[in-house]
């Protein structure tokens, strides 16, 4: 598997339900980021969690990070139709200079039905 | 909130032509990037730029590609002799510390 793999690839839920997406990675990281992309649009930064953090909240978003398992999850609570989008995780590898790249996963496509 | 601005939003070009994709990063950001996303595929790193030089580039970023920061505000990606497989969304991004701010992208269609 490649650095930054999300699962599931696609998730369809009803409005009001919670959506959980997972991301696994292979190398040690400085931080992990989650991004959202509406169809045909740019990427919007949602949240960043550092390697020494285990959980972070932002509004209806909750991100967890388990560095021992090299995995992260993104939970969207009380989903809305407007949350329909693709969600990507991206990792900054450890000991990479600040100008270094982030590695993106394949993304999870979330569909929230009204 | 500060934005990364990309122009044009959509570019159609003939195979073999040169294109220049333009970006205006956030003014106090230090690191600049180009990524691309072929339709339905993952976001791929092309190149990073810091202190007026390329700091890292991917295998994709071959001699066909070049980047420039010609003045204090613009950051450009030039693709020479475009090929059909260059058709993709090209995203510019900048950051100061951690977490990118992405532009809305330029959809490049090579015909």
Architecture overview:
The complex is a heterodimer of chains A (114) and B (111). Chain A is mainly β. Chain A is built from no helices and eleven strands. Helix content of chain A is 0%, strand content 56%. In chain A, strands 2, 4, 5, 9, 10 and 11 form a six-stranded mixed beta sheet that branches. The radius of gyration of chain A is 14 Å and the shape is globular. The termini of chain A are far apart. In chain A, 35% of the residues are buried. In chain B, the strands form two sheets. In chain B, strands 2, 4, 5, 6, 9, 10 and 11 form a seven-stranded mixed beta sheet that branches. A four-stranded antiparallel beta sheet of chain B has the order 1-3-8-7, with no helix packed on it. Chain B contains no helices and eleven strands. Helix content of chain B is 0%, strand content 51%. Chain B is mostly beta strands. In chain B, strand 5 and strand 6 form a beta hairpin. At the A-B interface, strand 4, strand 5, strand 9 and strand 10 of A face strand 4, strand 5, strand 9 and strand 10 of B.
